[in-house]
């Protein structure tokens, strides 16, 4: 999940949680009367209406714990910049492993997807953006996957290749 939706989700969870714990104001006590008199207040001017009972909100430790747990899960989850390496591996196995099994290159053997070869042959240097560019646009005998894979899959497989190149 990207940082913006996470922040929105966290903020909305905080607001909803805070709203759940705001207790309503108690009705004003009558002059010289006790708060028990105020609690027994009835509407006398409108016959037939039921007695107005003041709402009382009680603090619920269970609800507070649930809200706190949700907030911790949203804020403390996986870092937003971390790619999904499991998905990257799945995309790699389904689309790249036919030519690049084990980090090798079955078409042009000297152009493996190991760090030294990527530093030497990859346009733009050994970085995730350069790998994403190559996966998206292809080069020489490598086909372009920009129309076959979505942007998230391309980013995930580029991160997977980058992490496996060492």
Automatic annotation (TrEMBL):
<keyword id="KW-0408">Iron</keyword>
<keyword id="KW-0732">Signal</keyword>
<dbReference type="GO" id="GO:0009055">
    <property type="term" value="F:electron transfer activity"/>
</dbReference>
<keyword id="KW-0793">Thylakoid</keyword>
<comment type="similarity">
    <text>Belongs to the cytochrome c family. PetJ subfamily.</text>
</comment>
<dbReference type="InterPro" id="IPR023655">
    <property type="entry name" value="Cyt_C6"/>
</dbReference>
<comment type="function">
    <text>Functions as an electron carrier between membrane-bound cytochrome b6-f and photosystem I in oxygenic photosynthesis.</text>
</comment>
<feature type="signal peptide">
    <location>
        <begin position="1"/>
        <end position="20"/>
    </location>
</feature>
<keyword id="KW-0349">Heme</keyword>
<dbReference type="GO" id="GO:0009543">
    <property type="term" value="C:chloroplast thylakoid lumen"/>
</dbReference>
<feature type="domain" description="Cytochrome c">
    <location>
        <begin position="83"/>
        <end position="165"/>
    </location>
</feature>
<dbReference type="InterPro" id="IPR008168">
    <property type="entry name" value="Cyt_C_IC"/>
</dbReference>
<dbReference type="GO" id="GO:0005506">
    <property type="term" value="F:iron ion binding"/>
</dbReference>
<dbReference type="InterPro" id="IPR009056">
    <property type="entry name" value="Cyt_c-like_dom"/>
</dbReference>
<dbReference type="Pfam" id="PF13442">
    <property type="entry name" value="Cytochrome_CBB3"/>
</dbReference>
<dbReference type="GO" id="GO:0020037">
    <property type="term" value="F:heme binding"/>
</dbReference>
<protein>
    <recommendedName>
        <fullName>Cytochrome c-553</fullName>
    </recommendedName>
</protein>
<keyword id="KW-0813">Transport</keyword>
<dbReference type="InterPro" id="IPR036909">
    <property type="entry name" value="Cyt_c-like_dom_sf"/>
</dbReference>
<keyword id="KW-0479">Metal-binding</keyword>
<keyword id="KW-0249">Electron transport</keyword>
